[in-house]
Amino acid sequence: MDNKIFYEKFDWASFKYEALKPKVEKVISSIPDDVNSILDVGCGNGIITNVLGKNYDVTAVDRSEEALSFVETNKINSSADNIPLEDKSFDMVFSSELLEHLPDEVLVGTIEEIKRLSKKYIFITVPNAENPDKLLIKCPKCNYIYNSPNHLRSFNIKKLKSLFPNYKLLDSFTFGKKVRYYNPLLLNLKKKLTPANSWIPYFWVEKAKRNTTCPKCENEFENKYKFNPITTAIDTLNVIISPKKDYWLFAIFEINNK
Ligand SMILES: [Zn+2]
After folding, report:
1. Cα of 166 to ligand 1 centre, how many Å?
2. Total number of domains constituting the chain
3. Most buried pick, 68, 179, 197, 218, via CB within 10 A?
């Protein structure tokens, strides 16, 4: 499935620096001292990229032209699994909130490109052990069910490490606002027992974020909410049994030259 339309139609302007400031500062303070050049793979609208660009020699890659229009550094419109640059062009390859969006075959190619282009370091951030099923939407036209920010997979540190077997893990930590995990069994129950229009999570209150484009049939629609007591009961039970976790997982790898 090609999700290109999803990212072109995505409301990139809705991602603002102020909301991500603590994360951007954490990224900057975590970069190893001997880094001068950075490749930012899947830079989105450049909230982090543009700040990095003030202190580093930065090149940014994204497949969305709309997203790149916000980016102020060197930039390349390219899919992350086929980047037209020379091997080992950058001290560090950075990728933030990209890997969870990639289908299997693109993920494999992207990891290869990240390794190929890095001279020394690889810096990855992803949602921390997220359960992507918790933000499901059903397209009213084709009935396709998808995660609203189009997250297709979830990572913990073990899984991230497995992607870079020949690298040394220099540092890893979780960071950011605490968000509640959704128990997979309860989520399955919710999917079976309740209508999709009751699935908008209770914390998802901004109307603008309810506008979405189906990645399958390209239908643009407003995901309308309708109260359902069973959904609310299951959500409440989840609040009781599921812990909250830091939202992000950061990992910095160093190439093993031995
Ligand atoms: Zn659809």
Report:
1. 41
2. 1
3. 68
Cα Rg for the chain, rounded, in angstroms? 19
Domain that holds residue 103: 4-255
Give the Å distance between the CA of 213 and the centre of ligand 1.
8
User: Which CATH number fits the domain that encloses residue 224?
Assistant: 3.40.50.150
pTM value is: 0.89
Under 8 Å between Cβ of 62 and 79? no
Structure tokens at 119: 């001279």
- Cα of 90 from ligand 1 centre, angstroms: 40
Owner of token pair 């039970």: 237
pLDDT in tens, 107-153: 999 999 999 999 999 999 999 998 888 888 899 999 999 888 888 99
What spacing in Å lies between the alpha carbon of 192 and ligand 1's midpoint?
A: 20
- CA 187 from chain centre, in angstroms, equals 21
Centre of ligand 1 from the C-alpha of residue 145, in Å: 8
Which of 8-13's residues contact partners 24+ apart within 8 Å by CB, and which partners?
8/64, 8/65, 8/66, 9/213, 9/220, 10/64, 10/66, 10/67, 10/213, 11/208, 11/211, 12/44, 12/45, 12/64, 12/66, 12/67, 12/69, 12/70, 13/45, 13/70
